[in-house]
Amino acid sequence: MNATDPIARVDALAYEYPGVRALDGVSFALESGTVTALVGPNGAGKTTLLRCLAGLDSPLEGRIAVAGVDVLESPREAHRHLGYLSDFFGVYESLTVAQCLHHAGAIQGVAAAALPAAVEGTAKRLGLADRLAQAAGTLSRGLRQRLAIGQALIHGPRLLLLDEPAAGLDPEARHALAGLFRSLQSEGMTLVVSSHILAELDEYSTHMLVLREGRVVEHRALAPAGGDGRRRIRVRLAAPVDGLRERLEALGIAPGAAEENAVVIEGPADDAGRAALLAKLVGAGLAVAEFAEVRENLHDSYLRTVREETP
Amino acid sequence: MNPELQRNAWLELGPHRRIAGPAVLLLVFALFGAGGEAGDWRARLVGPAYVLSFVILYLYGAHQAAESVAEEVRDRTWDLQRLSALGPGAMTVGKLFGAPMFAWYLGIPCLVVLAFASSAVPNAPHPGWLVVTYAAGAIAVHGASIGLALQEARREARAGRRLGVLVMLLPLLLAMWVLPLADRGAAQGLAWHGRYFDGLTFLALSACAFAAWAAFGAYRGFCRELQVRTLPWAWPGFALFLAFWLAGFASEGGGFARAFTGFGLLAALGATYLALYSEPTTAMEIRRVSAAFARGDAVRAMEEMPLWPTTLVLAFAFALAAPLAWQGFGESLGLDGWRELTDYVARAPLALVLAALRDGAILVFFASAARPRRVVTTALLYAALLWWVIPGLLAAVGLAFAAGVVNPFFGGGGTRAAIILGVQAAIAVALAASRWRRHHGPKG
Fold this sequence. Notes:
Number of helices of chain A: 10
Radius of gyration of chain B: 25 Å
Largest sheet of chain B: 2 strands, antiparallel
Largest interface: A-B, 37 and 33 residues
Order of helices and strands of chain A: EEEHEEHEHHHEHEHEEEHEEHEH
Number of helices of chain B: 20
Mean pLDDT of chain B: 86
Strand order of the largest sheet of chain A: 6-7-8-3-9-10
Order of helices and strands of chain B: HHHHHHHHHEEHHHHHHHHHHH
Low-confidence stretches of chain A: none
Low-confidence stretches of chain B: none
Strand order of the largest sheet of chain B: 1-2
Strand content of chain B: under 5%
Shape of chain A: globular
Oligomer: heterodimer
Strand content of chain A: 25-35%
Radius of gyration of chain A: 23 Å
Structural class of chain B: mainly alpha
């Protein structure tokens, strides 16, 4: 498997409950290092899809590969490459946090010699380092959530599947969770996060996969880059400028949607390029009050997609 | 160390338990050993050692073994286990010997006391075989408990609620059946497949064989839960083993074929009904089997198949073989009506298999409802109505013919029974197939 190959590939997946086609011809591929927001109304098939991806439920038809391993043919091998947090998870309440993590690592095939370091590292990453000796049953909801995520990722999976991970968490815990997901992504992990709280998903998602009545309605990158990796940047000026579009065109910048004192332009993805672009604008005498990448709002995108799909 | 053994050691063998458990045992044995009765003090320990071994290893052990799965489902940690990279073998060892770890921690000293105390009793059973019998029997009970818990886990919603207590009935039933047999066997010895055995030796070897089957059954249950696909030969294999084991008691004088087909039919039918009402047969499972067959993937279809049809096919084979095996039996006994006996032996097994097919189709019919609910209970109720309640009522009011139409065994006659039950089975299969196609069959 090459580094550029998708970390997960799903082909023509179908799953049925009595009288209900929960998944119907679902196909998509997940790029490595992305965070995919799995969204859709209740009953759309999100949990079923995650459970099939994790090899916990067998689909009626279709194929699933994770890290090049056929999940349906070799689920035990596939489990080495993935972690899964169920929406209704449990922890071993009588065990300590350290024992829970140790056990999770051991059953996921972490070598005995590497287990102490894995336990310590995971606890540190999840802010549980000072609670290793505490019984899991005495943890708060937020800490239990962190422990459960720790159990899912202690073996260093390449794909992490999370079903409603922020459910029941207070805003502070949700914020910490978002930070964790960003950090995992920056380390190259691929995440699929199902949630009803779109604002929270917006904080860290790079892609959106919309399910509706068991079918993929849309799967695309959020804030998509152009072919040359460019980004949309909103420039707001301190005061309205006459002939703004012309002045930008004279600078070799193609303006997009413009308001009286603001315009969306295309700019480079890297920081140095953006700094140069900003310097160019300021150097041209434009009083730049705001210069920020336009990130697509997941909530708006989702609602637009759903409206377009609704007959 | 096996991670499941390690986890169970953390849970089951805390410092307090490690010290307090043996201390309490010591006190109990000391109490009985120091009792005021005359005679060897060691002999006074035999009874308490028997009882404690049974209570700890069998009752408590069975409870713990079943809970090793049921509790995981209840506490929602079962997915974590199913997601692990552990194979079914490691999982079986971890659960089978891990969950009842405290029972073994206390049970082994009880067995040692039992062996030690028995050696002081004249004509007592051989201590070594006694310990082997008890230990292997406990493994068999634990394996069976885990197997039942795994079946229940597949039902998910109700899993584990009462199972730990329910499985304690297993060792009680086993004790009621085995102990009288053991007493008789120990006193007289017994013949099995033409060879004579000391009763306890035979019991110990049998317990080992059943323990191996129970452990293997648990292993196959874990295979299913861990999505490791296997061909369904183990369940009919166990029915064949059971038939061979039972036939050993009745095969003296060259009657092995008769005994084997007779017990084989009973074992296969028993296994069919046990699987039918214990494993969750759902419309979706039938859909998977049907989809695999439609793709021409017979191996996958067999892997996805519920267990009960496999032993039903075996029972059908035994039913067809029965007339050949029992040919001339009535004549050899000098019975006047041997032709009637031959007819009954020829047709009644087929009728029994057709009845099982009918009951299976009834279950599939209810499982194929648009929103199936209480499938097993409803199917059991209908089976009871057809086997006993309706024919019993009809017979009670003098409608013997009608009773014989509902349950032909009320009217006797092998051929008639086979025809009536064949018609019933055909109707049940047609109704089940029609309902399944309507609600769950491939669309379009």
